């Protein structure tokens, strides 16, 4: 039986708008800063201390008093007790040079640090024959952040470097968006797990691939299910996912209009409203988007693996960004024809092409890779970008995955 495919297919940009109109940011929770990597900040973050918290040595060397640092001619400065990181800094007297080590507090009265490699030692004295610039090799208090200063905006995705900054600035915990909860349902009696596959069996690549995509995007996978070609079983599975508290339900396969493409019927049978079923694009044309009035979003991804990946990479992750309170993704760049290889056009439906970007600035070029068919994953081993063309718009370049 051929299913009715209304509502009509949308354009690529129209599909994003349809999703945005039905997504609100999730609620917030507090997590320890050291455990925040991959999470999305829900509010601005302010430094809780100066960083550095005091003036400190930037190099191993010798702390020199202000009166001695600016002098001329050879000076003999007696060597004091060494100053290590964590030691309490005692005042530095004129005529004294104190051995000091990186990260140690600058003693009161010191104006500069002479690096160890430039030092001349004679017995118990430092021989100084040159003037030293004020604050030479000294990290000033608060030069990285001042207490009370806003150091990160809402919507920023925390990475390991940001974790380090948060901890350095005295921020023990942060408010983040709740992780989107996603239920993943693969469909098709032909699918089997990775391993020996007999007869007409097909190894399921979409399930692991989409699960990995969601994990990288900061989602919490609440369940993975497989349903054969049975509308009643699929309807029941989707209902269980809906009632289990998923924010998004994702299906793979069964999204087109063939006799065993049952996703739309099951989605509508479970009470969800279909907002689009099909987008004027290749690959990924049969993608479906629906939502429940007081429940999860539903994405029906195509069965061909590259089609599933493209639909998830752009439409599913667009919804994830909105749930996380982040702005919509912008392309890396718009490309003139001279920067793009053969095989694309501004006319016709949108095409999402496996591509490889090389070079920088004026030398940047984009190569459209061979093997653009929606079942061919191998070109993605070489790809580092998607080239989005057609729809009457200039070529747009996106990273292979959304890591922003």
TrEMBL record:
| Reaction equation(s) it catalyzes | adenylyl-molybdopterin + molybdate = Mo-molybdopterin + AMP + H(+)
Name the UniProt key words of this record, in alphabetical order.
Magnesium, Metal-binding, Molybdenum, Molybdenum cofactor biosynthesis, Transferase
Similarity comment: family membership: Belongs to the MoeA family.
Highest taxon in the source lineage: Bacteria
Gene3D superfamilies, alphabetized: MoaB/Mog-like domain, MoeA, C-terminal, domain IV, Molybdopterin biosynthesis moea protein, domain 2, Molybdopterin biosynthesis moea protein, domain 3
Q: Write down what this protein is called.
A: Molybdopterin molybdenumtransferase
Taxonomic lineage = Bacteria, Pseudomonadati, Pseudomonadota, Alphaproteobacteria, Sphingomonadales
Q: NCBIfam families annotated for this entry? A: molyb_syn
Origin species, per record, is: Novosphingobium clariflavum
Identify the SUPFAM superfamilies for this entry: MoeA N-terminal region -like, Molybdenum cofactor biosynthesis proteins
